[in-house]
Amino acid sequence: MKASSYYHSQKLVPYVFVLPFLISIAVFYVYPIIGTIIMSFQQVVPGQTHFIGLANYKRVISSDFLTALKNSSIYTLLTILILVPGPIILAVLLSKGPSHMNNALRAAFFIPSLVSVVVAGTLFRLMFAANGKAVVNAMLAWFGLKPVDWILGGARQAMFLMVLVAVWRWTGVNIIYFLAGLQAIPEDLYDAAAIDGAGPLNKFFHITLPLLRPTIIFVTTISIFGGFAMFEESYVLWQGVSPNNFGLTIVWLIYQKGFQLGDMGTASAIGLVLMVIVFTLSLSVLNLFGFFKREE
Amino acid sequence: MKRFLFVCLVIATLGIVPAFGQKTDITLWTFQELHLTFYQKMAEKWNAAHPKEMINLKGEVFPYDDMHNKLLISLQSGVGAPDISDIEISKFANYLQGDIQLAPLNDLIDPEKDKFVQSRLDLYKKDGKYYGLDFHVGAEVMYYNMDIMKAAGVDIDKIKTWGDYIKAGQQVVAKTGKPMTTIEVTEHWSYYPLLNMAGSDVVDSNGRVTLDDPINVKVLQLLKDMIYKYKIAIPTPGGFHHNEQYYGFMNDGGAASIWMPMWYMGRFTDYMTDLSGKIAVRPMPKFDGSDVVYNIKSPYTSAGMGGTGTAVIKTSKNLALAKKFLYFCKGSKEGTIATWTDLGFDPLRWDVWSDPAMKAPNKFTKFFVNKENIFDVLLQVKDGFNTTNVGGKYPAVIDAIKHTVMYKVLVEQSKTPEQALKEAAAELRK
Amino acid sequence: MRTRGFVAIFATILKYLCLIVLAVSFIFPILALVTASFRPGRDLLRYGITFKSIIPDSLDPKNFVALVKSRDGIYLTWFKNSLFLTILQTVLSLFFSSFVGYGLAKYHFRGRNTIFVIVLFVMMVPLQILMLPLYKLTAALGIMNTYLGVLLPFIVSPFAIFFFRQYAIGIPNDFIDAGRVDGLGEFRIFFKLITPLMAPAYGAMAILLAQQSWNNFLWPLIVMRTGNMFTLPIGLNSLLTPYGNNYDMLIAGSCAASIPIIIVFFFFQRYFISGLSAGGIKE
After folding, report:
1. Using one digit for the tens of pLDDT, what is the confidence trace for A129-158?
2. Separation between Cα atoms, residue A166 and residue A175, nearest integer Å
3. All domains in chain B, ordered by first residue
4. Which end of chain B, N or C, is less packed with Cβ atoms under 10 Å?
5. Residue A205 CB coordination number (10 Å)
6. Half-sphere exposure (CA, 13 Å, Cβ side) for B413?
7. Which residues in chain C touch residue B267, judged by CB atoms under 8 angstroms apart?
8. Using an 8 Å Cβ cutoff, are A266 and B270 in contact?
9. Touching check for A131 and chain B: CB below 8 Å?
């Protein structure tokens, strides 16, 4: 067997394809992940570390952790419920039609994602200020409603703001994923359906949605990860202190323990527990989609 | 092209070597550009005064949170720390854990120790060693809006106790319809100075939690009373005294007074410009043992609040020089005067407060009703500073105050002061 | 287009009316930001964001001038660093991630699911807990304060691999089989046949990887140690301090910082828009 044909053999080729990923994992992730697992059993302080058994894990379950887990879960669920169907519809509406108009509209949805989190948080804080003059409360006043204290009002207002910022920043991004996904759907399918007399709704549910499935799986999965990883948005909205922990998320808690309170051991333990939760969750969602069966 | 570059390099090296030959590189991290400008100015002065020990200051400004994270990572991993670093007071305790990586400054501080406001040195002390030097005292003072005071017919110089303050407040509310003050509900700048002046603290000198001390309960009750019983205060719009909404509110003459540290003057001059010529600075009201303050009686007239402890990292290759330069910037008479003239801080050394240099006009003397006599307020309260402890659990305790205690008691009213403090303390002691 | 008379026209008008209202509400905060960048930062604090605030009474480029001039033009250095890192990271990530993603999609081999699970796993480790050991590793490799230190750990983007895998799954196997029949090697099939078909995916990922890299903050901050190596997000964030924020420069700086990615967006979006795409799959 010639070397080149071996090189091209279907047995070896797949491994060459995934090699760059495996190398990068071996070099840059294996050591840090093991390091983090070790840290979760240690007390890590400047100049020294020592093993303290399971003490960090015992400290994980606190009232703050439960609050954070609750907030992160609700946030993730709400963002998925909005940021998957919404952008699908928008992508379908924006994929055809007058191009200048659509260009402008797509840009309008995408540009918010370019603004840094810090600036986005500041903008929303100023728009949702409690006084009657700020945009949102001024609008409420048009309808004869009283001004709402969005920032300090309570858990519901806080969640509303966090989700709103996410929707504002990520709608445009998800539209891009779905627009790209729509391109992979063969045009003839729609033509054939039209001949059979299918209306737009019929086409949407019987062609677009099923064939968009890989992209939907992708967006849902990264939304789960993104939802549970959310931290900066709420940190910035409340400038570091959310009243009564309304905006506390798990990664914020990790940040608080690890950096602000200098306890990297407990932070690592919380992080690993979070990973187990998210991992289980995302694998079951993928399973639900029939992901690990052969997809053709 | 290569040759050209090489020639350039040679010329550059020749040019640099004689000029920087004797200079020692000192790296410095900070989170505030103004601090860096101050250090750079002081480095020039240092080089002029110490031609044999010239330094080449390499300062970097990082984002606030991230500078502290970066420093913590450097110290935990043992690589990449600078020679000198600013460390914000609420984070300092994190760096005093384990095998302390900061260098003690006692050899420099001890000879002039009595010239400093003692409690401000003790902040960064552990086991008798001083690990940091602050920029300022951060003396707690009261800022009065004189327009509102005049409209209400209140003489602020007659306000001596909290009883007086509340009475004046009720007069203000009755005459102008404006609240006397605002109370922070997501930060600790309203509560913490008061409990400190009342003779208490949130951790003891060993860093153990004392958040549920009976005095702390009474002081929190007093804040709650100001809002709901006497109706002279409102929860701060936006939650705390450093947010855009609040600046706008105050600019429009929103509240008649506010207690904050001296360094808050800079927030008035930068963000509340409409109040120029209207704000008077006065000493804080006292806890005189009356019923209003639940019989708390204490001798303290102010509290040293906030701050940035600058430290030298033990691993520095130029330890002695870095320490001397730091002391020159923040401990020497010349340096501490510059903290006022350049940065607008109340200097750490009380022996410079009466120095003529402190009366020179600047943006603060222009802004405040006190004109050039701002430091007279400080001289009045000079001997009344309680110690503050910022070691051990301090960062976590302050976090708990900011995140849950204040909001539950003052906004939601879902917990009494005692319940909220006891619960938080119990969680923190775990 | 076929017209179905009055109803169809009415539906189109209604559709665009809804879309325009929605788009305007998305863009409103941006308009407020842009107009604010031409006014003193204090104005924003003084008045908040009100309906009046998006109508500028005067346009003063003072903030932008200050931005370029302050600290010897360091903003431009940050801009340059960000630009360089973003281009490099985007190009390399596009290449490697599409390569790996295609491999995971179109071959059945032992360990495929395991590798895919690892991809997911890497995507969800919060960087905050990896930071300390990753810092030690980077220091040991001697790439602190270098572009390499920022780039190397994240050159193969798991999220892009996932996306390309999902996209490649939609490509019919007939294309690949046809290539094999023509005697093309497996890699030539990928580079010659598949990459053009994946143009919409490349277009989308180019925009999103560039956006991600451009806004990347956490890791560059840990690696970079001197001001001349900072990227834009680090530099801009250092304008915010607990002792007061420099809103003038922050807002102007953020506006100027968005421009390159907007250009990238307009350039690459043509690849995933109907009619213009060369890679539309027709069977």
Report:
1. 877 778 888 888 888 888 888 888 889 999
2. 14
3. 22-137+306-378 (3.40.190.10), 140-304+384-429 (3.40.190.10)
4. N
5. 11
6. 8
7. 244
8. no
9. yes
